[in-house]
Structure to design on (397 residues):
């Protein structure tokens, strides 16, 4: 069971959660192996101006919700608080005489995008994206995805309050590589992707980061709409629902932004990019269907491995043939250059496979975002089979 929450926290969370442990949601969301709880406590004590009572409550929250390895979770605290420590109020940043003029322009653009998100997309008027942080690299963390060797389903990790997700986030690359090695030793398929931004689901005010501030305007706007959408609605334990919903808000919101700012040529190119991307996603989904049928067959493992390689090689060939006709890039060319496996394909499915259902519902509701969110709150409360049936019905009506 789930229950609804009023904003500015996500609309859907797990029930019966004591108020004093809600602050540990994100802290258990990104799970880490770490060296020593004492080391991480020393770091917190030396680097974070953090009320000791709050820290004690966070730790108690870990213990109260079954987070057994204190050091493991303290390192996630360290990662998040490091980002918070680096952030500065944007109003102060833009007033600095030494600021790069391009950075100043982009931060001012973010302010206009936020206002548009609040007024036109009915997204939460939180304080997210009112601070700026430079994390010193072009990604803030990395996500790890994993599947069994003969499965298209992502492994899931479960966290207090936030529920279960099909990926696992790492700020520390050494820890990521150590855990990745464990999974590979178990013959699992593993994929690791750079993450330029993430949502703390309203528990903290997410900052603007150097990892995306200089993106093209339509991408910058889309990312902000996407992450604010997670603050508006979050379904416990269903990554595909959450990401497809946020992607639908991102796409429709970006189109509205480009219309609002009279960037009609960019709008045309953006729409063509979405069409091309959908065609590529369909290719990936077809390959996943073939693999699923293969894995369910009675063939021995050696033959399954051979045919698995053949399906993945064919997918690369099909993509090269399809993308050769694109006049607007689809955004997948670099993705296809690397090794393909179950986990990598599933990571795309999580974000894109159900986007069309949400977009069709929004169109049916005449792009009334308030009604859109209200309907999705009801949909999210259904049992999984009923929820899927209703979503498929949006495409039929």
């Amino acid at each position: 069971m789930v229950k609804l929450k009023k904003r500015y926290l996500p609309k859907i969370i797990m029930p019966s959660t004591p108020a004093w442990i809600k602050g540990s949601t994100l802290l258990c969301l990104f799970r880490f192996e770490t060296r020593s709880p004492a080391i991480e406590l020393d770091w917190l004590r030396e680097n974070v101006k953090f009320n000791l009572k709050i820290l004690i409550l966070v730790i108690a929250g870990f213990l109260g919700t079954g987070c057994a390895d204190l050091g493991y979770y303290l390192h996630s605290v360290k990662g998040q608080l490091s980002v918070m420590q680096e952030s500065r109020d944007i109003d102060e940043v833009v007033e600095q005489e030494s600021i790069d003029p391009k950075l100043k322009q982009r931060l001012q653009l973010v302010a206009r995008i936020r206002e548009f998100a609040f007024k036109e997309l009915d997204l939460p008027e939180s304080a997210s994206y009112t601070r700026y942080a430079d994390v010193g690299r072009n990604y803030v963390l990395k996500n790890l995805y994993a599947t069994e060797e003969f499965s298209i389903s992502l492994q899931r990790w479960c966290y207090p309050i936030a529920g279960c997700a099909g990926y696992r986030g790492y700020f520390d690359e050494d820890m990521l590589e150590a855990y990745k090695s464990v999974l590979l030793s178990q013959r699992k398929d593993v994929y690791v992707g750079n993450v330029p931004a993430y949502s703390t689901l309203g528990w903290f005010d997410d900052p603007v980061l150097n990892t995306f501030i200089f993106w093209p305007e339509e991408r910058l706007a889309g990312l902000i709409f996407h992450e604010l959408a997670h603050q508006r609605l979050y379904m416990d334990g269903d990554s595909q629902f959450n990401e497809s919903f946020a992607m639908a808000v991102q796409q429709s919101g970006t189109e509205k932004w480009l219309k609002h700012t009279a960037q009609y040529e960019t709008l045309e190119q953006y729409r063509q990019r979405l069409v091309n991307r959908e065609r590529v996603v369909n290719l990936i989904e077809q390959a996943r269907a073939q693999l699923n049928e293969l894995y369910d067959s009675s063939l021995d493992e050696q033959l399954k491995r051979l045919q698995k390689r053949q399906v993945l090689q064919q997918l690369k060939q099909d993509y090269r043939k399809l993308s050769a006709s694109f006049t607007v890039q689809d955004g997948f060319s670099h993705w296809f250059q690397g090794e393909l496996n179950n986990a990598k394909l599933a990571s795309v499915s999580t974000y894109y496979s159900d986007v069309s259902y949400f977009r069709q519902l929004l169109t049916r509701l005449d792009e009334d975002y308030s009604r859109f969110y209200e309907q999705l709150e009801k949909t999210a409360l259904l049992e999984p089979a009923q929820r899927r049936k209703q979503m498929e019905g949006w495409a039929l009506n």
Notes: The two ends are 28 Å apart (CA to CA). The first strand starts at residue 3 and ends at 4. Strands lie at 3-4, 12-13, 88-89, 131-133, 141-147, 157-159, 163-165, 168-170, 189-195, 208-209. Residues 258 and 265 are 9 Å apart (CA to CA).
